Amino acid sequence: MDHPIKRDHARFRKIIKGKIRENLRKYVSSGDMIIPKGPKRFSIPMPQIEIPRFKFGDKSQGGMGQGQGNPGDPVDGQPDEQGEGKEAGQGEGNKDVEVELTIEELAQILGEELELPNIEPKGRHQIESHKDRYTTIGVIGPESLRHFKRTFRESLKRQLIMGTYDFRNPLIVPIKNDYRYKAAHTKVEYENSAVVIYMMDVSGSMGDEQKEIVRTESFWINLWLKHQYKNIEIRYIIHDATAKEVDEDTFFKTRESGGTLISSAFILCRDIIKKDYDANEWNIYPFHFSDGDNWSLDDTKLCLEILDSDLLKVSNMFCYGQVESRYGSGQFYKDLFEKYGERSDSVILSKIKNKEGILDSIKEFLGKGK
């Protein structure tokens, strides 16, 4: 039977998850409300925690506290020594409470809200994982794994057999031969692996707002994919007229002023896959984010050739997210749509108008379970 505290805690977490799900669009669009608390936990502030209050009835009903007096008069009839110096601290205080959730809990909320299907892995690469499950009993082991109930049972059994057990003075003193320890049964499991390759245009037309949208969307995409795959690698490519691989921090903070050659990112992505990720073993997810500007029609033609001959053949899917910008033409989306449209399950296109559109874009990218 569960302890009442455990039941209350479970009910509280269920309520919290429901509140987060109700406000998921706000959390996603704000971008900075999810705070990492280690590799597998996140802290989420819960605003407007209601505090119980007294509700006063009609004065005409009589009762205590209905005598003469004006608002602000001291209760005990003495002068108010504090005066009216209330410049600081006026208004209601902040009632935010931080609640920690695991990756699995956050991903479950995201999946339920967007009705995301589980991914069916394509790659066959599996990491050998050894997991120890303490399901057996041994006669040797460290003291930290001593099984007290089994040790007590062995000691009692020995004393009963030897006739030294005194029912009037039931003292059980284990000896070394009575000690029993929890023993591990090692189970070998195989886990599918995935790699996510993010490409982003960092030319002058992509501003801070556009990059913040990409940062937020990639956070939630990573969250879902980490929930689906036990082993996942993430690579980052930035480009203007040239492309280079960078770390995560550089990916979201770099801004260049040059032109845009999208093919440079596609070529680097192709080379990384060929070098490090066998398509027969890995689940591969290239994501490209841009405002849709490209240098020329010839470069767009080269991009389409690389997609057809290389990237689409090895990837679970190729995702293009077009972040709206006042300087971007959006032409690259039109070119991709004209060639692939809604006919291809391997090319998924999404327009992201602003932060409020992030959640819809995530559903477009992940909604097919590929």
How would you sum up this structure, described in words?
With 370 residues, the protein is an alpha/beta fold. The chain has three domains: 4-48 and 96-114, no CATH class; 127-187, no CATH class; 193-366, von Willebrand factor, type A domain (Rossmann fold). Helix content is 35%, strand content 22%. The chain has ten helices and ten strands. The strands form two sheets. Strands 4, 5, 6, 7, 8, 9 and 10 form a seven-stranded mixed beta sheet that branches. The chain has a three-stranded antiparallel beta sheet with strand order 1-2-3. A hairpin with a 3-residue loop joins strand 6 and strand 7. Helix 1 (4-22) packs across helix 3 (103-114). The two termini are 41 Å apart. The relative contact order is 0.12.
Features:
flat; 3-stranded antiparallel β-sheet; alpha/beta; 22% strand; 3 domains; 370 residues; Rossmann fold; 7-stranded mixed β-sheet
Secondary structure elements and pairings:
Blueprint: H1 4-22, H2 24-30, E1 35-36, E2 41-46, E3 97-102, H3 103-114, E4 126-138, H4 148-162, E5 181-201, H5 208-228, E6 231-239, E7 243-246, H6 248-253, H7 262-276, E8 283-290, H8 297-314, E9 318-323, H9 331-339, E10 347-352, H10 358-366
Parallel strand pairs: 5-6, 5-8, 8-9, 9-10
Antiparallel strand pairs: 1-2, 2-3, 4-5, 6-7
Helix pairs in contact: 1-3, 3-5, 5-10, 7-8
Tell me the β content.
15-25%
Q: Write down the domain tally.
A: 3
CATH topology of the largest domain: Rossmann fold
* Helix-residue proportion: 25-40%
Please provide the ordered H/E string of secondary-structure elements: HHEEEHEHEHEEHHEHEHEH
Total beta strand runs? 10
**Discrete helix count:** 10
* Morphology call: flat
Unreliable stretches covering 5 or more consecutive residues: none
